[in-house]
Amino acid sequence: MDEKEEKWYCSISDVIAILTESVDPLAYWRNLKERLKKEGNETVTNSHGLKMKAGDGKNRMTDVADMTHQAKQKFFLRQYQWWLNEHLPARR
User: Fold this and answer.
1) Which bin fits 69, alpha (ψ -120 to 50), beta or left (φ > 0)?
2) Range of the domain at 35
3) DSSP per residue over 27-52, as a string?
4) Are 31 and 84 in contact (CB under 8 A)?
């Protein structure tokens, strides 16, 4: 959390790990980010890095999203909707 600006940050790869259950969320994010950049998606070009504690306890640089930025929220919503469509049976 950035106390000065009162923003909460989350690791994009952590969110992807949860939503996609990928065995390699960093690779998933790299591939997705590259595809989105080619499409001209501003969400990706506006993402930035921040050091966060990794699973091994070390602080590592990772792409983060602040949860106050509307475009990034839409990105996560689209990913979540995709995940729901892929993993839940169709509603009848």
Assistant:
1) beta
2) 9-86
3) HHHHHHHHHHHHTT-HHHHT-EEEEE
4) no
pTM for the predicted model, two decimal places: 0.59
> How do the pLDDT tens digits run along the chain, 92 residues long?
556 766 777 888 888 888 888 899 889 988 888 888 888 877 665 567 888 888 888 998 988 877 665 666 677 777 777 777 777 765 54
Q: How many domains does the chain have?
A: 1
Question: Which residues, other chains included, contact 43 with Cβ-Cβ below 8 Å and sequence gap of 6+?
Answer: 36, 71, 72, 74, 75
Per the listing, tokens 């504690």 go with 53
